[in-house]
Design goal:
Blueprint (H helix, E strand, L loop, with lengths): L1 H30 L4 H10 L13 E6 L2 E7 L2 E6 L4 E10 L3 E6 L5 E5 L4 E6 L2 E12 L17 E4 L2 E5 L4 E6 L4 E10 L3 E6 L4 E6 L4 E6 L2 E11 L1
Antiparallel strand pairs: 1-2, 1-8, 2-3, 3-4, 4-5, 5-6, 6-7, 7-8, 9-10, 9-16, 10-11, 11-12, 12-13, 13-14, 14-15, 15-16
Helix pairs in contact: 1-2
């Protein structure tokens, strides 16, 4: 009996440091708010919120401790407090499967919401704030009666003089009908209503803006509408 008691006591003493560590990290999350220790503890305890079909490409509602980030369409987001008040208006900069990147329209500060590590980072000048993300939701996909092509799904954009077409591995090609001129582009990113392309050989950037129905051309410090978009698919 004495040997059994000694074995149990040794097991409890061995486990105690781990229990204390987790308890300390959990207490830091409750009392100190967002911190590195809190984020590390959350990462160990919770799986990425980018799961169950939700990721940086389709997330429209991301919850954190003080409220939510809510997509409003056309690349616009708002930060809403827990009492329902809008605290900031944000512009979407870029998305991929892991991140949603936003810019505060008034302060020009930048936000990066990491749906793999469940962490948000706000940067303005030398000021850096980190906070924990709690959950993320995507707008339910519905089967529309007529297919609506948006920035995330478009594969071809037609204009009166030719078209832009998607190829494999993020490559795009522009074909000009009158003389069959051909230009090659690399896709840099997309948002809800646009595809952004870069021709490194000419240092030319193209935005295929499906909301305004314009092909926007940028080069040598100039930016202007190049074509009217006629159809997409």
């Amino acid at each position: 009996m004495l040997r059994q008691i000694a074995s149990v006591s040794a097991l409890i003493l061995t486990a105690a440091p781990m229990i204390a560590l987790n308890s300390t990290a959990a207490l830091a999350c409750r009392t100190d708010g967002p911190s590195n220790a809190c984020a590390q503890f959350a990462a160990r305890q919770r799986s990425p919120i980018a799961s169950n079909g939700v990721d940086g490409l389709n997330a429209t509602r991301i919850t954190y401790r003080q409220g939510v980030f809510q997509a409003r369409g056309h690349g616009n987001w708002v930060r809403v407090s827990r009492n329902g008040k809008i605290r900031a208006r944000l512009q979407e900069i870029k998305r991929d499967k892991r991140f949603v990147q936003l810019r505060n329209k008034s302060t020009q500060g930048r936000l990066e919401l990491d749906l793999y590590r469940n962490q948000g980072v706000y940067v303005k000048g030398r000021k850096i704030q980190r906070f924990q993300l709690i959950s993320a939701k995507a707008q339910p996909t519905q089967k529309p009666t007529s297919t609506v092509v948006k920035g995330y799904t478009v594969k071809r954009v037609n204009h009166a003089g030719g078209f832009f077409a998607s190829r494999r591995n993020g490559n795009w090609v522009e074909i000009n009908r009158p003389n069959r001129a051909r230009f090659n582009f690399k896709e840099t990113h997309r948002d809800e209503w646009s595809v952004y392309l870069l021709d490194r050989s000419r240092n030319v950037r193209i935005q295929l803006d499906l909301h305004r129905k314009k092909v926007i051309y940028t080069a040598r410090g100039k930016r202007f509408d190049l074509y009217n978009i006629t159809t997409v698919r």
